[in-house]
Structure formats: structure tokens, C-alpha cells
Amino acid sequence: MEIIDKIIFPPRHDHILVSDAIIIAITVIYFIYLSFLTGATLFSAGFIYRGRTEENPFYTRFGKDLIRMAYSVKGAILLGLLPPLALALAYAQIFYGSGLEVARFFQPMLIFTLIGAGLSLFYCKLLEKTHYLIFQILVAVAAVFFLFLAAYGLISVNILSFFPEKWMVIKGSIPHIFDATQFVRLLHFMVFTLTVTGVSVLFFTFNLSGGNVDADEQYRDYALKFGAGLALAGTLLQPLFILWTYKAFPTIAESLQGYYVAAGLMAVLYVLSVVLYLVLANKNPRLGSLAYVLMVLATLVLVVDDTIARRTGVKEQYLYLQDEAAKFEEKLALEREELKSAGGEISVARGEQIYNARCTSCHQFDKRVVGPPHVEVLPKYVGKPDELVKFILNPVKVNPDYPPMPNLGLSQQDAEAVAKYLLDRYQKYQAQQGKQ
Amino acid sequence: MKKSIVPVVFLGYFGLIAAVLLFMGFYWQAKYSPPEQPIKFPHYIHAGKLGLDCKFCHQYVDKSIHATVPAMQICMNCHQTAAHDRPEVQKLLKYWENKEPIPWVKVHDVPDYVYFSHKRHIKAGIDCANCHGDMKVVRQVRQTRTLRMGFCVSCHRLKGAPTDCWTCHK
Question: Do B57 and B85 fall into the same domain?
């Protein structure tokens, strides 16, 4: 994945916005995917265990259905593979030039997701093929473990991306930073999993394309209670963890905007909790679709809040991108200009552009600004363009009446162009003076 | 009757937490948001676009424990003539005419019981960005590192600098 860091281009303004939008969209999908897969596998194994030990086929059936839901959507596995790749690209774009090679963090994430989703699918098939309970449970637990690791990676990169202080201590590709925020987020993920799993059970059993058509009265009743109850528990617990997250938040990533959005998230969770309560109280599963939409909306708001945290926490990085983008566009404009002009004119036209962009804040041709007027200092450089280039590339103290000129970091080529332009213009200036 | 009370209880619960979050936001705003400076001094123009070295203004950074904020004379080297049309520069000129020092608000401040020396770190080749972030792009100065003990010590461990308590607590 190191290759990703290399193929990233100097950003343009629109790239930055697009990258943030990609991160938001993909993170929402990936989070819900990981949560549901984790929850479905975990609770399925629980029901299988219960069905077996209590010798109650109802629970066994429910357990089987739970994990099948996760794979009922075609291409579910693929859904787990694309996000790490897309995120790696988008994050690498945002952290261009920062020295933090974010792309490498997505390598283990990709592998963990693959193994986790693979094991979970294996567990799903295993339920038909074998009756060794221990084996089934072990595979499920291993699947949950790897999915959890993937979620841990996602959470950590997210936090790392708004806490630049931690960058210096990261070695290798596991972004483990021993930080309270990271720990709280992981707990929050577990609670979040309850909401996602519960709402999904409702949605898949009752709403999605007519729901589960084989379900009888008892089954429907149980699915409703289990789904809505689990989701409601998760939804009611979430605010405590969000509060705790903010308590542990790095000051650098805090902003009033972020808190407003967090308060807005409470409003969404409130509506969701009321909807879930109505499902439970009225035994009315038709609201399941609404609950699903609200769950996705809550996830979106959560991820948007993280994006605000990142835009605040590494504000300097965003400013850097903005400045780089401006420079890059300036350079493109120069190159376009250069193609238009012909032969020997090239470097003079280019020189004028660079001069106007980089020198005019301190110099005017015939007036003192910060530096001396060029007409006073250029005579000694006439016929000696090399010395002028040398001065521009590495200014030394000349006149005690002026502050020193800073090194502007021009390239050899650019300095030559500017020198040529200056001498050219000085020549014309002299000719004009001579005429008068 | 009993049913309708549950949504109200939920409202109270979520509302309370939302209120606490908003309170935390306003607390942060009051206590930790970057301070407004008397003149909106743009680092990104001086250190970025004009390419001035940090030491040009923070003259004591490699000579003393304090980097110090530049005296007005340093600004006036250039602003005797430069950029008089900008409103922020006019504020600078007003201070200069009235011979008042500019009341810059301090941004970084470690507690008195901590001994910190710029000189030692600059001499050891530590870049300003390690502790202040990328100042070449900054529009408004803020503290970008916690400057808590864990931060100092983790770098000292990485670079093999001393970590005994008396290094920083004299």
C-alpha cells in the first residue's frame, strides 16, 4: 500500500472536498457493515448455543436466520473489501505531504476484514454441514475477533487523523496510540453494534422485500422483541459513550461546530429511540424501515462530526493543501503560458510571472518597498546574470539600510527566468531614459 | 396514559445530554479556543509567502530558553514602507506612532514548575514543527500540541534525550 502514497498527486481544491466526502460516505457504509457482521455473528452464535443446550429448535432457527441475514445481500463480502482501499486513497490525498503515510494503516484493516468476513461466512455454512457445537462457536468467536480488529483499525486511523501529536510515536502499520479516546471509541463501537444489529433484525425480518415470509406468529413476535429491544438498549447507551468520548477528546480537535453537531446527533438518537419504543409498545414492525433510515442518519452525523474534528485537529494540514493547490494551479497556468510563447521569449515571460507572484510584495522597479528599488541595484548586475541568479538563490546581506532578503526557495530554472526578466526590463528602462 | 410518558422521559434524557454537550462546547470556546490577537498577524504571509526564517523574528530561539515574540522594531524594518494599504498594518503603524508595545496574547504557556529551553532543542536540530505544527501556513496562531508531560517524554524516549524527573522539574 506504500504505492498509494506515491501515486497521490498534489491536491487541487476540489480534490480535498471530494476526499472528505468519500471518507464520510465510505466510513458510514464500512461502519454499518462491520457492526452488523460482528453483531449478527456474535448473537447468532449465542442463539445456536442456547438452542443446543436448551434443546429448543426455535433458538437454533433464529440463530441460523440471523447470520443468513448478513449474507442475504448479494456481494456482501465485496462490500467489506472496497472500503479499506477507497479510504486508503482518500486519506492519502488528505495527508499528502504531511509525512504520515496513512495508506499503510489500511493494509492490516483490509486483511482483518477479509479474514473476519470469510470466517463469518464459513460459520454460516458450517451451521448446515456439521453438528460440532464447539467448532461452530470457535469459528464465530474468531470471526468476531477479526472483525473487531478491523473496526479497531478504522477507529484508530480516524482518531489519529485529528490528533497530530501522536504521529511521532506510531511505528509500523498498527495505529495503536494508547489513548483514552481510542479506548472509549472502541466501547462505543460495541454499543453501536447493538443498535445496528437490532435495527437490522427488524428491517430484514419485517421490511426488506416483504420480510421473512416463512415466519410464524411466535417467530415474528420474538424477532420484534429481540430486534427492537436490542436496538433500544444500544440507542439509550450511546449518548453516555458520546459524552465520554468528548470528555476524552484532544483539545486541538474541539470546536463549537463539533459540539453543535453532537447535540444534533442526540436529536436523531432521540427520534430513533422513540420509534423503537413505538415498535415495541404497539407491536408494530412497519416502523422498521424508518428505524433503519434513522440508524444510517445517526451514523452519518457521527462520521460528519469526526470530519469536523479532523478539519479542526489538522487545520494546518488543510491550509497546507490549500496553499499547495494554489501553487500547483499557478504552475499549471505558467506552463500553459509557456507553451503559447515561442523561442527565446519563454524565460522572460515566465520570469515576469514568477516576479509578479513572488517578488512584488517587497520590490518595485523604481521605488523602495521592503527591499531597494531595482533601478538602484541592477546596474552592478548588468552583463552578469549568473551573479544575479546566485543572489536570488542565496541572498546575502548587502546594504545595512535594509533588512536581509529572505531565501525564497526558487528553483534554479525559475531564478534564471526572473534574472533574465529583470535585466531585460532594466535594459528597456535604460533605453527609455536615454531617449528622454 | 403510561405509554405516553416514555417518550417524555427519553426527551429529558437525550435533552440533558445534548445540553451537557453544548455546555462543554461553550466551555471550550471560553477557555481553549485560540485567542484573538491585537493585530491579525499572518504567519503564512511572512514565514510562508515571503519565506522569512523563524529566527528573523524570534531572535532568541537558539540563544535562550525563550523564543520571544519580536519587538516592533523588527516589523518596522519592513513596514516603514511595506503594505501601508492594509488595515491590519495600519493598526501596527498606530502602535508605532503612539510608541506603545503591541499587547500580543500569549498562546503557549507551560506551568512554572516545568523547565523548558528552546536553545537546547534547536541546537539538537529539533524542528519547530515538532512542537508548534506547520507555522508556515498559519493564519491565526494556536497551540497544536498538548505540551503535557506525556508529549515531552515520548519524544525524549524516541530521541534518547534524558527522562529523569529533574531534567524538566528543577
Answer: no
